[in-house]
Amino acid sequence: MLLGVFIVWYWYNSTSPEDRELILLNIKKADPFWLCISVLFGLIAYVSRAIRWNYMLQPMGYKPRLINNVLIILMAYLANLGIPRMGEILRPTALATYEGVPFEKGLGTIVTERVVDVIMLLAIITITLILQTEQIFSFLEGKGLPLNSLFALLAAGVIALAFFIFFVKKSKHALALKIKDFVQGLLTGILSVFKMKNKWGFVFQTCIIWLCYLGMFWVIKYTVAETADLSYIQLTVAFVGGAIAMMFTNGGIGLYPVAVSQALGIYGISAVSGDTFGWIMWITQTFVLVIFGAISFLLLPLLNRNQ
């Protein structure tokens, strides 16, 4: 949270008053139609996430009400804005309270869900890097980053990872055995997805979730004149930059708009338009979480008064 606040302060002080005024004016002029479409994509993603969650719970003999799943998920994402990963504790706790699903079983489904989502994000990052390698590397070279050193560092990391995997597989050390058991548990959880009754439904909902996340981002291009002509793959580069930024500050506060703006700069988008796009996107997705998350906090106990 402190890092996010510092980045906002740094961005504010490093931007001229004229640019700040222009960015604020552009945000105010953003077309409400596209903002509403972006919000709609976000809500569809959360409903799909709730449906997918039920697919994971059903083999264990539980079928929570869909409305409860949706409200719990929105409530958890709002909690994550305050304390990172608090939502991952709140979700199984609320599920145990209102649906009687044991905490550890609910937490197990969330861990598996997170692993699947990380795989999806890595797939998007990989595809984006493959399709936009030349543009990204040219931009990094223009920023004075030594690509040879980056490649050497990457190669060293791959070699170190290979040695680590070899050590874990061969070693009988207690720590190595714990790591091996942990990884095997994760793999079992992931592979169990394909053994469930609605496995293709799970895969379909996962695709819907990530297409909605991308759609939520893509339509914002029509709110800024300079980004309206960008292609989907060019916008996906900015989407990846924003997704990575979300890992470092609560809800991407401060860092998300900066990362998106820098990524858009690869394609010649000005800093003002890039910052405008980044802030509109961050405000939109934060609006969804704050407003609908707060409503969920109020509605969940009201709809479950008997529990």
Describe the structure.
There is one protein chain. This protein is mainly alpha-helical and 307 residues long. Helix content is 79%, strand content 0%. The protein has 13 helices and no strands. The protein has helices spanning 2-14, 17-28, 32-57, 66-82, 86-99, 103-131, 133-142, 147-170, 174-192, 199-218, 232-245, 255-265, 271-303. Helix 3 (32-57) packs across helix 4 (66-82) and helix 5 (86-99) crosses helix 6 (103-131). The longest helix has 33 residues, at 271-303. The model has no long low-confidence stretch (mean pLDDT 86).
> What is the strand tally?
0
Strand content: under 5%
Mean of residue pLDDT? 86
Q: Biggest β-sheet: count, sense, barrel?
A: none
Distance between the termini: 35 Å
Note poorly predicted spans: none
User: How many H/I helices?
Assistant: 13
Compute the gyration radius: what is it?
21 Å
Topology, element by element:
Elements: H1 2-14, H2 17-28, H3 32-57, H4 66-82, H5 86-99, H6 103-131, H7 133-142, H8 147-170, H9 174-192, H10 199-218, H11 232-245, H12 255-265, H13 271-303
Helix pairs in contact: 2-13, 3-4, 3-10, 3-13, 4-5, 4-13, 5-6, 6-11, 11-12, 12-13
